[in-house]
Design brief:
The chain has two helices and nine strands. By secondary structure, it is mainly β. The protein is globular. Bound molecules: 2-acetamido-2-deoxy-beta-D-glucopyranose (2 copies).
Length: 288
């Protein structure tokens, strides 16, 4: 037992360049992408997508994550009007989902960092690979939901919650709109999204989960989702109501193309924040 854990720990120590995923037992490829093997050190879910065809980037198909659904009965549970929690980490080994949680800390890399974590000269934090210089500049992450689990499209996949200034620490707690209707039997598909604000290759993150909405008596219907548009500084021009996820900087299938610079002087980066009209918290305006 002890040699095995030491080996695992050494393995983790070498993963400084990993990116970040939102870990939960309801996610796809939690065990990795080797059939029949439960990889406690799995990091297949953390890899971003960049300049790929849609056939590759959609639902993290590029490394076959979408072909490894969660175990039967494992759902990302979304309590209507409540909250749900995921763990941001660069490797499953640094979450409570592996090794009994013994390699976790308050941070996504299992290490200790100061509360106001930053690098000298406002440099990018690379371990954990948060793609930001500090907490206030962290771009924000979202979850979207599609009421069906077959034939998910950009239009039937609406962002229902945003969490500003993440990923940052390991624990991320998202709000669920009170009016989110129940899923059909078998569940919905939920999807995690993140577009970092610079600090590395301008990529994006898209990762699927099997989800169900709990405690809901809502009969509302989520409206068809429209692409977000760049509206930094002019909120009246933002896309109103249900918005699609951000599909950016891929070889095809993009729903936003940017040129020029944003208010902070760096190249435009269409993150999940008010630059695209995403309010923090539950998106309560997504219903028909
Ligand atoms: C992942 O591994 C665990 C432990 O071996 C197993 O119980 C579970 O069913 C696996 N999940 C999937 C989706 O294969
Ligand atoms: C956070 O980072 C941004 C962008 O690099 C910088 O403008 C800002 O001053 C930093 N804030 C703090 C509190 O260091």
């Amino acid at each position: 037992m002890i040699p095995l854990l030491s080996f695992a720990f050494l393995g983790l120590a070498g993963l400084t360049q990993a990116h970040i995923a939102a870990w939960h037992k309801g996610m796809y490829c939690l065990n990795g992408t080797v059939p029949g093997f439960d990889n406690q050190n799995n990091n297949d879910a953390v890899n971003p997508v960049f300049k790929m065809p849609k056939s590759e980037w959609w639902m993290h198909h590029n490394n076959k994550c979408d072909e490894f659904p969660p175990a039967p009965g494992d759902f990302l549970e979304l309590p209507a009007g409540g909250t749900f929690t995921v763990e941001f980490a660069g490797n499953r080994g640094q979450t409570t989902l592996s090794f009994g949680g013994k390699f976790t800390s308050e941070w996504p890399d299992g290490q200790q960092h100061p509360e106001d974590f930053s690098m000298p000269n406002n440099g990018c934090i690379t371990s954990p690979n948060l793609h930001t210089t500090n907490q206030s500049d962290a771009a924000g992450t979202v979850f979207a939901i599609s009421a069906i689990s077959a034939a998910v499209t950009a239009e039937n996949l609406a962002v229902f919650t945003a969490l500003y200034h993440t990923p940052w620490k390991r624990i991320g707690t998202f709000q669920v709109p009170a009016d989110l209707p129940p899923c059909p039997p078998g569940g919905c598909i939920a999807v995690f999204g993140w577009v970092p604000n610079g600090c590395g290759i301008p990529n994006m993150y898209m990762h699927p989960y099997r989800a169900k909405v709990t405690n809901s008596k809502s009969t509302k219907v989520v409206a068809p989702a429209k692409p977000p548009v760049w509206c930094e500084g002019t909120p009246s021009t933002c896309t109103k109501g249900a918005k699609q996820m951000v599909f950016w900087n891929q070889a095809d299938g993009n729903n936003i193309v940017t040129t020029g610079y944003q208010a902070d002087g760096s190249p435009k980066s269409p993150g999940y924040n008010m630059k695209l009209g995403f309010q923090n918290g539950a998106q309560n305006d997504i219903f028909l």
